[in-house]
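=== Structural record ===
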Amino acid sequence: MDRRHFLGTVGLAAAAGATLPLVSSCSNGRIGEIKESYQADLLVVGGGPSGTCAAIAAARRGAKVLLVDSGNCLGGMGTKGLVGPFMTCYDTSGDNMIIRGLFEEVVDRLVAEGGAIHPSKVRQGTEFTAWISEGHDHCTPFDPEILKKVYDRMCAEAGVKVLFHASFVTPIMKGRKIQGAVLLTPSGLEAARAKMVIDATGDGTVAYYAGAPCVFGDPESGRVQPASLFFRINNVDTYRLIDEVVPHLPEFRRVDGVSYRCLHWRVAEAEAAGEWDLSRKSVNIWRSVEKDQWVVNCTRIHGVDATNCESLTDAEVEGRRQVEELMNFFHKYVPGCEVATLMGTGATMGIRESRHVHGDFVLPVQDLIDGVIPDDNIVLAANSIDVHGAMGGPAGGLYMPIKKNMYGVPYRCLLPKNVDGLLLAGRCISADSPAAGAIRVMPPAMAIGQAAGVAAALCLENGISPSSLDYADLKPALLEQKVYLG
């Protein structure tokens, strides 16, 4: 019996109220069983930016929400992964902030606590955007520790029940309908039953094991985007670093998909000396909120399968090896970084791509390029198409700024095929690989999560399935939560 069939059997047995002799307790030798522990209107699996916004949005409409995450904080890539800054939330003109709603509220709260610089004050081509211009206007530097507190407070205020250290094991199914999930917690295996579920795992884990069709990475190329381990440094002489970079700005370029941007001249020196074996040719280094703190996005680990434990383990180890090499590079080659200190690496690898769940509509990248705003639009965004490793070589990538002012994401992309009572949120929504390369970043992911949460609450209020929800009811509910739809 393969793992998927086994887990499906477990889910069906749990749905029938059975207890299963699955694990043996080390403390007393007794056989464990699935405990009936939680009951909610809505179960949100995954407490990253999308799942957290989904939970808050649904709870604000009165739903009883249980939000579960395998880690110890909310925020996912923005907190555990140290990914920063928030990418642009503006249209391509740079004049209008179009990703608003809960994202804007999070930013405003961060700014009020001294934990972010408002995107209106951050322009392209500066040290806050790694001196990148295309697609990088109005980024939002933020402090991940303060972001953790903001998410905690917003969930508490909305009445969301949060459960950390709770790993998804299998869905509880009745035919095609999902009715919750079995979780592995420090207390053992526990059932969390719900009338509706949102998959915000990033990897489409809930949808996959519930029976929804999925593809892994880009079926045409057979590849997934490389992973990265982000890290933060401090004790940087920021003004010396700026003085080092600015005279070289006219030399920034892309050749055959390879970026020669920040510090590429220093990378060339290190490479010539045999002290650089990373696949990148420059260093993405972003100034953060505090003057001496910077965020580094430079590690690159190819071929990582985020659905495979051994692959992830190898990637985490390789990521830390690359961080060590980068710290040596900073100390030896980069003015202003001679005594820089490693504040910390991400507690989890930054995954750009894994499964894409197929839904009622698969968002094609051409719709983003053409600026299509669908009739059932839930999000307006203008984030660039950013597919690392797309050119085939280890350093190459596909980067396409959006030529239109903005594009939309249809509600249909949140509806997985073959499963009832389930909505998708975040990176795993129904989109082709290059389209997902644009909407996977945190601001649109948060907006997609908010839309999923509002949709789930409306379905619960009206006793209907997500596929039966009328957009004429969804749109005003989104606008009520200050979502910008044009």
